[in-house]
Design a protein that fits this description.
By secondary structure, the protein is α+β, with helices and mostly antiparallel strands. The protein has 3 helices and 4 strands. The N and C termini lie close together (10 Å).
Amino acid sequence: MEFWKQLCAEHGISPEGTLEEFATSDADRKDVFFYQADDAHYIPRAVLLDLEPRVINTILSSPYARLYNPENVYLSKHGGGAGNNWAAGYTQGEKLEEEVFDIIDREAEGSDSLEAVEMQVKDKNQN
């Protein structure tokens, strides 16, 4: 979430996705990391996914909760995660592959010219 907070600050985008008064220029290329919805809100080009809800629920209960597209948030229906067990996470992840790839595909198709994908992994011990 710190990554998106920093991008919002740099581009003058409020936690609700609206432009701050000082950020009216298009020269800063907001469209690289955000897309503009029909209601003029800026939405991160992001997919949030996890097998357990703790980290994503922290994001969704923060002041930045309205920034993200709810269709691009995926939590495992089991809700318990893999308990830091690689094999369990691999097995659960394999079952979710199609659903997750559908979300990623939909987000990628919304781009005019996809050039890169950045993946960030939040460790349970990070703040």
